[in-house]
Description:
The structure holds three protein chains of three kinds.
Chain A: H1 19-32, H2 45-52, H3 56-68, E1 72-75, E2 79-82, H4 86-110, H5 115-128
Antiparallel strand pairs in A: 1-2
Chain B: H1 2-33, H2 44-69, H3 74-77, H4 84-118, H5 124-159
Helix pairs in contact in B: 1-2, 1-4, 2-4, 2-5, 4-5
Chain C: E1 2-10, E2 15-24, E3 29-33, H1 40-47, E4 54-60, E5 63-64, E6 73-76, H2 88-98, H3 104-111, H4 127-139, E7 145-149, H5 157-170, E8 176-180, H6 184-187, E9 193-198, E10 201-207, H7 208-215, H8 219-229, E11 233-234
Helix pairs in contact in C: 4-5
Amino acid sequence: MFKQEVRSITISFNNNQAIYIQIIQYLKTQILSSVLKPGDKLQSVRELADQLKVNPNTVQRAYRELERNELIITLRGQGSYITSDSMILDDLRTSVVGKETEVFIEGMRKLGYDNTKIFEIVKRYLERGE
Amino acid sequence: MKKLVKFEIQRSLKWMAIVILAMLLYYALDLMFNIDISRLDLGLSFLAFMFVPPFTILIINVSNTQSDLMKDTKNLYLSTPYKIDDYAISKMIVVIIQYLIIAIIQYSILILILSEYLVEINESHQIILPIYIWAVSVVSVGVLGNMIGVRVLFKSYLKK
Amino acid sequence: MLEVTNLTKKYSRELALDNVSLSFQKGVITGILGPNGSGKTTFMRIISRTLKGYVGDIKLFDKQITDKSKEFISFLPENNHLYDWMSIGKVVKFYVDFFSDFDIDDFKKLSMSLGLNDKTLIRALPKGVLQQFRVCLVLSRKASIYLLDEPLSNIDVLAREKIIEMIRMTTKEENCIIITSHLISEIELLLDNVCFLKEGKLIFRGSCDAIRDEDSTSILNKYKEVMTNEEISQI
């Protein structure tokens, strides 16, 4: 079932990082949080550029990069679709989650915490939270 | 280039109308106050009638060309897809048209003013001819003046 | 699409442009940044053919640029270029008459929010409205090259955003947009490539993504860095 969702977002971009990379990250997050599901049709370059208010070339670049990583498939004259390949999607999840975790652990280490302490803190926060 | 000529004429229409009306006003005043032509009233008003119209056209054209080549509006005028020669030629065509119109009206009024006295003056041609020559010189100087003025402005633009 | 090689322009005493070489591809928005007097406006005026007397090679579509090329170039000069005495209706008619690529429907769409009255005279327009009007006119032409000299000057932030949006909507695969601006941080998201001019010389050029990627810095910061160090780098 191919459907196109119209999302209204205002994402503000960071001037210090390549815009196309930020767009890629934004799309990856949408995939992982199931806003964009496997097989979903992506907005056209122009549509996304208009929505995000960025240079269409930047969106083009982002799409190309995602294509290179096989996260999206572009069919001539039909548009771009999120892959349905569960292996690729799992890899994506692993790498994104891995990165987040690495960053977190780095941060905690910098504050002087060792593995056991990190474990405890995470457990405490998870238990008290939702 | 037709478009350039049309544009040039359209923007000078108001001024042309004022000059022509002024000349007609002069003729109307003449009818009312009866210039004594036997003394060949070459007074100030007559001189004004002869010289002011051509020089007004000269001033307007030079001023327009200045906006077209030197002021900020040059960026509009010169961004049109024409060559320098096209601009220069179109302006000269317009100058000639403007002068022809002014000259015809001037001469017509001149003849109307003088014809009242033609019956009285035997050597009428001896009076009319110099006036004609004079009028032609004024017009030629005016046309030449415009052409030279425009050419000078174009040349200085080219040098920049 | 547009190739500029060794462009030099000398006024009687000073060198406005000193051996500048740049190339502009299709579908790309390039920003030319630099302080006052760095040669940005001179550059724009030369490409638009409103200024001559230069030395160097300019090629458009692989052919020497001529006056006929003006058919494909839409130029927005820094200062108001419209005749004061004209009405809005007359100005639009001028564009329709003289530029065969002027799209009146596009113009109506772009200028809708301005609420323009055909009879208003140019001299009666407030600065901000006049600027937006001029931008609408220039962007309503279906040109191959758009030259926008300081399109954001002298207007309030909301109008600036509208103009940036208009430029963003104009960019297409078939055209190339060149913008000069003082307001770097507002415009940098729009740009694909940038070049920095200082005292007529090209002291830096690069792609915005590469700058952000490699130096983790914004274009604005890169500009500040380069302008004070005068490093010559090329990406």
